[in-house]
Design brief:
By secondary structure, this protein is an alpha/beta fold. It is about 15% helix and about 25% strand. Its EC number is 3.1.1.81.
Protein backbone atom coordinates (compact mmCIF):
# COMPACT_ATOMS: atom_id res chain seq x y z
CA UNK A 1 0.00 0.00 0.00
CA UNK A 2 1.20 3.51 -0.78
CA UNK A 3 2.67 5.55 2.06
CA UNK A 4 3.22 9.29 2.21
CA UNK A 5 4.98 11.86 4.38
CA UNK A 6 3.19 15.10 5.29
CA UNK A 7 5.16 18.32 5.67
CA UNK A 8 3.38 21.28 7.33
CA UNK A 9 4.90 24.50 5.98
CA UNK A 10 4.18 27.78 7.72
CA UNK A 11 3.80 30.63 5.18
CA UNK A 12 2.70 33.36 7.58
CA UNK A 13 0.96 34.05 10.85
CA UNK A 14 -1.76 36.20 12.34
CA UNK A 15 -0.96 37.51 15.80
CA UNK A 16 -3.26 38.72 18.55
CA UNK A 17 -6.09 36.61 17.12
CA UNK A 18 -9.29 36.21 19.13
CA UNK A 19 -9.34 32.55 20.16
CA UNK A 20 -13.11 32.44 20.59
CA UNK A 21 -13.33 32.66 16.79
CA UNK A 22 -11.85 29.17 16.72
CA UNK A 23 -13.70 27.58 19.64
CA UNK A 24 -17.41 28.40 19.39
CA UNK A 25 -17.30 31.46 21.67
CA UNK A 26 -15.23 29.75 24.33
CA UNK A 27 -12.07 31.54 25.51
CA UNK A 28 -13.54 35.01 24.89
CA UNK A 29 -10.82 37.62 25.32
CA UNK A 30 -7.94 35.18 24.90
CA UNK A 31 -5.52 36.21 22.16
CA UNK A 32 -3.37 33.70 20.28
CA UNK A 33 -1.02 33.56 17.33
CA UNK A 34 -2.18 31.28 14.52
CA UNK A 35 -0.02 29.87 11.72
CA UNK A 36 -1.08 29.85 8.09
CA UNK A 37 -0.04 26.42 6.83
CA UNK A 38 0.27 24.71 3.48
CA UNK A 39 0.70 20.94 3.42
CA UNK A 40 3.13 19.13 1.13
CA UNK A 41 2.26 15.46 0.76
CA UNK A 42 5.23 13.57 -0.63
CA UNK A 43 5.36 9.98 -1.88
CA UNK A 44 4.96 7.66 -4.84
CA UNK A 45 7.16 9.96 -6.97
CA UNK A 46 4.82 12.92 -6.74
CA UNK A 47 4.06 15.97 -4.60
CA UNK A 48 0.51 17.01 -3.77
CA UNK A 49 -0.17 20.30 -2.04
CA UNK A 50 -3.17 20.88 0.18
CA UNK A 51 -4.04 24.56 0.40
CA UNK A 52 -1.91 27.40 -0.91
CA UNK A 53 -2.02 29.86 1.98
CA UNK A 54 -2.67 33.59 1.66
CA UNK A 55 -1.58 35.94 -1.07
CA UNK A 56 1.33 38.29 -0.51
CA UNK A 57 0.80 40.13 2.81
CA UNK A 58 0.81 43.53 1.08
CA UNK A 59 -2.06 42.41 -1.18
CA UNK A 60 -3.96 41.02 1.79
CA UNK A 61 -3.65 44.27 3.71
CA UNK A 62 -4.54 46.48 0.74
CA UNK A 63 -7.51 44.42 -0.43
CA UNK A 64 -8.88 42.76 2.71
CA UNK A 65 -7.54 44.91 5.56
CA UNK A 66 -6.01 41.86 7.22
CA UNK A 67 -2.51 41.73 8.68
CA UNK A 68 -0.41 38.68 7.86
CA UNK A 69 3.09 38.57 9.32
CA UNK A 70 5.57 36.81 7.08
CA UNK A 71 9.22 36.60 8.02
CA UNK A 72 11.93 36.50 5.31
CA UNK A 73 12.07 33.05 3.74
CA UNK A 74 8.55 32.17 4.83
CA UNK A 75 6.99 32.61 1.40
CA UNK A 76 5.63 29.39 -0.18
CA UNK A 77 8.41 28.96 -2.76
CA UNK A 78 11.11 29.27 -0.09
CA UNK A 79 9.23 27.02 2.33
CA UNK A 80 8.97 24.29 -0.30
CA UNK A 81 12.62 24.70 -1.31
CA UNK A 82 13.69 23.93 2.25
CA UNK A 83 12.28 20.42 1.88
CA UNK A 84 13.77 20.03 -1.59
CA UNK A 85 10.67 20.75 -3.65
CA UNK A 86 10.32 23.28 -6.47
CA UNK A 87 6.93 24.90 -6.97
CA UNK A 88 6.74 23.69 -10.56
CA UNK A 89 7.07 20.06 -9.39
CA UNK A 90 3.62 20.14 -7.82
CA UNK A 91 1.06 18.51 -10.10
CA UNK A 92 -2.03 18.84 -7.89
CA UNK A 93 -3.22 21.45 -5.41
CA UNK A 94 -6.25 20.48 -3.33
CA UNK A 95 -7.94 23.60 -2.00
CA UNK A 96 -9.84 22.73 1.16
CA UNK A 97 -12.07 25.80 0.81
CA UNK A 98 -11.84 29.22 -0.79
CA UNK A 99 -11.34 31.46 2.24
CA UNK A 100 -8.61 33.99 1.51
CA UNK A 101 -6.02 32.41 3.83
CA UNK A 102 -6.25 29.01 2.12
CA UNK A 103 -6.56 29.82 -1.59
CA UNK A 104 -4.05 32.57 -2.42
CA UNK A 105 -0.80 32.51 -4.39
CA UNK A 106 -1.98 29.83 -6.81
CA UNK A 107 -0.02 31.38 -9.68
CA UNK A 108 3.12 30.01 -7.99
CA UNK A 109 2.23 26.46 -9.12
CA UNK A 110 2.11 26.70 -12.93
CA UNK A 111 1.91 22.96 -13.60
CA UNK A 112 -0.71 22.11 -11.00
CA UNK A 113 -4.30 21.13 -11.51
CA UNK A 114 -6.38 22.78 -8.77
CA UNK A 115 -9.19 20.77 -7.18
CA UNK A 116 -12.12 22.57 -5.52
CA UNK A 117 -15.51 21.22 -4.55
CA UNK A 118 -18.14 22.43 -7.01
CA UNK A 119 -20.36 23.53 -4.11
CA UNK A 120 -17.54 25.68 -2.72
CA UNK A 121 -16.96 27.40 -6.06
CA UNK A 122 -20.61 28.39 -6.26
CA UNK A 123 -20.78 29.67 -2.69
CA UNK A 124 -17.48 31.56 -2.80
CA UNK A 125 -18.70 33.85 -5.56
CA UNK A 126 -21.95 34.69 -3.78
CA UNK A 127 -21.71 33.94 -0.04
CA UNK A 128 -23.76 35.31 2.82
CA UNK A 129 -22.92 39.00 3.36
CA UNK A 130 -20.95 38.28 6.55
CA UNK A 131 -18.53 36.11 4.54
CA UNK A 132 -17.86 38.48 1.63
CA UNK A 133 -14.46 39.56 2.94
CA UNK A 134 -13.61 36.04 4.13
CA UNK A 135 -13.99 34.85 0.54
CA UNK A 136 -12.80 38.10 -1.10
CA UNK A 137 -16.10 37.63 -2.93
CA UNK A 138 -17.01 39.57 -6.09
CA UNK A 139 -20.47 40.25 -4.70
CA UNK A 140 -18.73 42.20 -1.93
CA UNK A 141 -16.69 44.24 -4.37
CA UNK A 142 -13.54 42.13 -4.15
CA UNK A 143 -11.51 40.30 -6.78
CA UNK A 144 -10.27 36.96 -5.42
CA UNK A 145 -6.87 35.94 -6.70
CA UNK A 146 -8.03 32.40 -7.50
CA UNK A 147 -10.09 33.84 -10.36
CA UNK A 148 -6.80 34.43 -12.18
CA UNK A 149 -6.14 30.68 -12.37
CA UNK A 150 -9.72 29.63 -13.06
CA UNK A 151 -8.72 27.82 -16.24
CA UNK A 152 -6.73 25.32 -14.15
CA UNK A 153 -9.45 24.65 -11.57
CA UNK A 154 -11.20 21.29 -11.80
CA UNK A 155 -14.51 21.25 -9.94
CA UNK A 156 -15.05 18.02 -8.02
CA UNK A 157 -18.06 16.61 -6.23
CA UNK A 158 -18.06 14.68 -2.98
CA UNK A 159 -15.62 11.98 -1.90
CA UNK A 160 -13.18 10.27 -4.23
CA UNK A 161 -9.75 8.64 -4.33
CA UNK A 162 -7.15 11.12 -5.53
CA UNK A 163 -4.26 8.65 -5.60
CA UNK A 164 -3.54 5.26 -4.04
CA UNK A 165 -3.53 5.98 -0.31
CA UNK A 166 -5.03 9.49 -0.57
CA UNK A 167 -8.78 10.04 -0.34
CA UNK A 168 -10.63 13.32 -0.68
CA UNK A 169 -13.36 13.77 1.94
CA UNK A 170 -16.22 16.24 1.64
CA UNK A 171 -16.48 17.72 5.16
CA UNK A 172 -19.08 20.51 5.10
CA UNK A 173 -19.79 22.68 8.10
CA UNK A 174 -17.16 25.40 8.24
CA UNK A 175 -18.06 26.05 4.61
CA UNK A 176 -20.42 24.25 2.20
CA UNK A 177 -17.68 22.77 0.06
CA UNK A 178 -15.02 22.11 2.67
CA UNK A 179 -12.87 19.13 1.73
CA UNK A 180 -10.07 17.33 3.53
CA UNK A 181 -7.58 14.59 2.78
CA UNK A 182 -7.20 11.19 4.37
CA UNK A 183 -3.57 10.20 3.86
CA UNK A 184 -2.02 6.77 4.36
CA UNK A 185 1.31 6.98 6.16
CA UNK A 186 3.70 4.56 7.80
CA UNK A 187 2.05 5.55 11.10
CA UNK A 188 -1.51 5.00 9.92
CA UNK A 189 -4.19 7.26 8.49
CA UNK A 190 -3.83 10.99 9.06
CA UNK A 191 -6.64 13.38 8.16
CA UNK A 192 -5.96 16.94 7.07
CA UNK A 193 -9.31 18.55 7.74
CA UNK A 194 -8.30 22.19 7.27
CA UNK A 195 -10.62 24.58 9.12
CA UNK A 196 -12.95 21.78 10.10
CA UNK A 197 -10.40 21.59 12.91
CA UNK A 198 -8.64 24.90 13.50
CA UNK A 199 -7.07 23.55 16.70
CA UNK A 200 -6.44 20.11 18.15
CA UNK A 201 -9.14 20.80 20.74
CA UNK A 202 -11.81 21.14 18.03
CA UNK A 203 -11.33 17.46 17.24
CA UNK A 204 -10.38 16.17 20.67
CA UNK A 205 -13.13 17.98 22.60
CA UNK A 206 -15.76 18.12 19.86
CA UNK A 207 -15.83 21.93 19.90
CA UNK A 208 -16.78 23.48 16.54
CA UNK A 209 -15.27 26.66 15.12
CA UNK A 210 -17.34 29.79 15.55
CA UNK A 211 -17.15 30.47 11.80
CA UNK A 212 -19.42 27.99 10.06
CA UNK A 213 -22.25 27.84 7.56
CA UNK A 214 -23.92 24.71 8.99
CA UNK A 215 -23.25 23.62 12.56
CA UNK A 216 -25.14 20.33 12.23
CA UNK A 217 -23.10 19.45 9.15
CA UNK A 218 -19.92 20.18 11.14
CA UNK A 219 -20.85 17.61 13.78
CA UNK A 220 -21.57 15.04 11.07
CA UNK A 221 -18.16 15.76 9.55
CA UNK A 222 -16.54 15.37 12.96
CA UNK A 223 -18.07 11.93 13.39
CA UNK A 224 -17.02 10.92 9.88
CA UNK A 225 -13.40 11.75 10.63
CA UNK A 226 -13.50 10.04 14.03
CA UNK A 227 -14.67 6.87 12.31
CA UNK A 228 -11.63 6.97 10.03
CA UNK A 229 -8.80 7.92 12.37
CA UNK A 230 -7.83 9.37 15.72
CA UNK A 231 -4.98 11.34 14.13
CA UNK A 232 -5.87 14.77 12.78
CA UNK A 233 -3.64 17.70 11.89
CA UNK A 234 -5.52 21.00 12.37
CA UNK A 235 -5.14 24.07 10.20
CA UNK A 236 -4.16 26.81 12.66
CA UNK A 237 -2.54 25.24 15.71
CA UNK A 238 1.05 26.24 16.50
CA UNK A 239 1.59 22.80 18.03
CA UNK A 240 1.52 21.31 14.53
CA UNK A 241 4.81 23.08 13.77
CA UNK A 242 6.63 21.33 16.61
CA UNK A 243 7.38 18.60 14.07
CA UNK A 244 8.83 19.07 10.58
CA UNK A 245 6.94 16.10 9.15
CA UNK A 246 4.34 13.48 9.95
CA UNK A 247 3.90 9.90 8.91
CA UNK A 248 7.49 8.91 8.24
Amino acid sequence: MSRYTIHPLCVGAIHNFEKSTLTYLGNVGTKVSIPLIIWAIVGENRVILMDSGPDDPAWVRANLDRVVEREPGMDPVSALARIGIAADQIDTVVISHLHWDHSGSLELYPNAEILVQREELAYANCPAPCFCRTYAAPIGGHSPSWHRVARRIRPVTGDFTLAPGIDVLHLPGHSPGMQGLSVATANGRIVLGSDTFNLFENFEQGVPPTIHTDIDAWFRSLERVRAITDTVLPAHDMKVLERASYGA
